[in-house]
Amino acid sequence: MKRFLIILLVTLSTNTFAKDLLNQPFPNIVLFDLNGKLINLEKQKHKGLILISFSATYCKPCKIEIGEFEKIAKEYSEEKIKIYLVFVDKSIDDIKKYAEENKISLQILHDIYQVYMKKYEVTGLPTSFLIKDGKIIEIFKGFTEENIVKIKKYLK
Asked: Does the model's pTM come out above 0.90?
């Protein structure tokens, strides 16, 4: 119940996002991680690049994308890029099992009610947002190798 109330408050306090999010400020996300800790991304807005990827355990392209994001995280420091995976599955236990089976080391957040998925107009998975200086500089809908190349260009 506490979790639902916090998400409800965040939803009510956040403006509806414009259809064209590119080059717009990236509004804050406040979600729980897999350990039940409330994570506020606002503190991360101005520390290098931030990549936020909406994903799900049932999404096959997401699994491939997460593997590529793991490689990026190992290759570059957190000062250069911080990657957050926002899982939209209903069951936190399914997400925990998936993370363990796939040896995911990236920060996982749980959008159980798909509040942010709807607010960011995510209509397909995976969808990722690359943020620099608090603004969305790239939106990746679906997974392609080209997405990874673009992300790496920003890291050079």
From this structure: no
